[in-house]
Amino acid sequence: MKCRKCGGRAVLELRRHNTALCGPDFVGFFRRHVLETVRRWRMFTRDEPVLVAVSGGKDSLALWDVLHDAGYRTIGLYLDLGIFDYSRASKARCEGFAAERGLELRVVAVADEAGAPIPAVRDATRRPTCSACGLSKRYLMNRAALDAGFPVVATGHNLDDEAATLFGSTLRWDESALARQTPVLEATHPKLVRRVKPLFRMSERETAAYAFVRGIDYIVEECPFARGATSIAHKEVLNRLEDTSPGSKAMFLQGFLERARGLFQARETVTLAECVRCGQVTTGEVCAFCKLRDQVTRATRPSRPAPAAEAHPLDLPGTRGLIADLHAASEIHAP
Ligand code: Q46
Ligand code: ZN
């Protein structure tokens, strides 16, 4: 297979673009597409510093690489979820990436902010793990950007992620999720920062190829909680469609964004306020993250030690069980 551009050996066939490219030409192709997306969707300007949320995976590190290479002012943000070895390994990848390029990486530990790492938050709140995790990530990303004075956070969501989310929301006809599905979530309140997804037109296979050709050391393992997630089943369905009809995922997502999203968006009216506890944006009085932290505090608070038992006239060796039984009985039968 030959590169359509230079005639050299192609490393990747891009069926939906009806082309094949060698390593350097593919890197150029990938970067052009991402930067064109940033411009066309007015994600951020050259003057705006960008906080890039990195997870140690191929997508977010590829995004940081593209933006840094293009001369954007960027800082990385790593949210340490405290998910066992997965978090340790993914943090090391982000630190390595930043150190190699002399870039700044900020690390925020969920355990410091929520009171416990994600697996313990899940146990304390009895929420599905990904729901507790997603809520914490959105809250902490926004707060980190506000604290650092960044107007925008960029995440590494790719075409496969976005098409699978859209597919899931459509199956459920979840109107508010459909209204919120966009590559640019504008800041609709002074305490919200813009959230953008510059890779939303690039497939997972393309970002993996970019990371590989660029020699980026990323974590290949998925988060252990991703196993069995419905979004993975949706991705598999879409992959089968893409195999038989290249370009299906892009057509599905692009068509929705151009023709259908506005219909859902027009109906979505929410009133935003500031959380009375932390000052972050909420639709109620206390934000969901503060409530989650409260639940964690209650669940992890050490139980109060039982008051020392007073000496009892009948408290003789061998009578302890009897006295306890008498006390218990009097409580049970009390009117
Ligand atoms: S939400 Fe769920 Fe991910 Fe959080 S718990 Fe892991 S799989 S990391 S994108
Ligand atoms: Zn709050």
What is the strand and helix layout of this fold?
Blueprint (H helix, E strand, L loop, with lengths): L11 E3 L4 E3 L1 H18 L9 E5 L3 H12 L4 E7 L3 H18 L3 E5 H5 L3 H8 L3 H20 L3 E3 L4 H14 L2 H6 L3 E2 L8 E3 L7 H10 L16 H15 L3 H20 L5 E2 L6 E2 L5 H13 L19 H14 L2
Parallel strand pairs: 3-4, 3-6, 4-5, 6-8
Antiparallel strand pairs: 1-2, 7-8, 9-10
Helix pairs in contact: 1-9, 2-9, 5-12, 7-10, 7-11
How would you describe this structure to a colleague?
With 335 residues, the protein is of the alpha/beta class. It is built from 13 helices and 10 strands. It has helices at 23-40, 58-69, 84-101, 110-114, 118-125, 129-148, 159-172, 175-180, 204-213, 230-244, 248-267, 288-300, 320-333; strands at 12-14, 19-21, 50-54, 74-80, 105-109, 152-154, 184-185, 194-196, 273-274, 281-282. It has a 6-stranded mixed beta sheet with strand order 5-4-3-6-8-7, sandwiched between helices. Strands 1-2 form a two-stranded antiparallel sheet. A hairpin with a 6-residue loop joins strand 9 and strand 10 (281-282). Helix 7 crosses helix 10 (230-244) and helix 7 (159-172) packs across helix 11. The protein is globular and about 75 Å long. The relative contact order is 0.13. Residues 309-335 have low confidence and may be disordered. Bound molecules: Fe4 H S5 (Q46) and zinc ion. Fe4 H S5 binds next to helix 6.
